[in-house]
Amino acid sequence: MIKLYQFPLSHYCEKARWALDYKEIEYEKVNIIPGTHFKVLKKLKATNSSVPLIVDGQEIIQGSSEIITYLDNKYPDKPLTPEDECLKQEALDWESFADEEIGPHIRRCFYYILLKYKSTIISYLSYDCDWYSKLLLNLMFPVFKKKMTEGMDISSSTNEESKIKLHDALNQLSGYLNDRKFLVGDSFTRADLAAASLIAPALRPEKFGFHPKKTPVELQELADDVKHRAPWFTDLYGDFR
């Protein structure tokens, strides 16, 4: 059985989960927490420290896009990549757009808010992980916060820059979709999956599977803003997730 190593809250991991679920591939989730995941991935002899990562027999694949490509090649039922070369390139281009213009910016805005609330972020990141995860995150928090802030270049000014870029990207997607149901052709593809999954942690719909008891007001405001700019999200997530 495939094993998926992931952060439950990660939007790139949601891309991989959604692909596996959509294609009805049986898999086991291995939930890990930031910081300690380095050791886990090192044991797997992964090429870098990023997740999502899947282990399928002797194969190790890292990265949400690489995972989707691998799954479509090995498990061709319910493909997410169009066969037509032109449509395939369109889907890959839109997926790349979402990965680069939505993913990093919504993540920065998300953590700019969450890092202000120690108990909340610890409960979010330890969700469905080993019992000792909260304890470790509490102990690691000062170092963890510093590394997250530096690694994502988080500050009030970069947060504002990311808000603008996120708005532009969502407006571009919504403008293109307009009266279309899908980004490419007339069927659901990896392009739609990428666009919707990368904003899912902010909106946390029912099928996302993570519903915290407490949400900071600022985070709810971010969610409301994203939802307003991505009216296509509800149908895509509701119909295909």
Note the beta-strand portion.
5-15%
Biggest β-sheet strands, sense, barrel? 4 strands, mixed
Rg from alpha-carbon coordinates: 18 Å
The rough form would be described as globular
What is the fold-level CATH name, i.e. the topology of the largest domain?
Glutathione S-transferase Yfyf (Class Pi), Chain A, domain 2
* Major sheet strand order: 2-1-3-4
**Number of alpha- plus pi-helical segments:** 12
Could you give the order of the helices and strands? EHEHEEHHHHHHHHHH
Percent helix, as a range, is: 55-70%
Give the low-confidence spans: none
The count of strands amounts to 4
The CATH class label of the largest domain is Mainly Alpha
The CATH architecture designation of the largest domain is: Up-down Bundle
- What's the N-to-C terminus distance? 21 Å
How many structural domains does the protein architecture include?
A: 2
Secondary-structure class? alpha+beta
Question: Quick check: average pLDDT?
Answer: 94
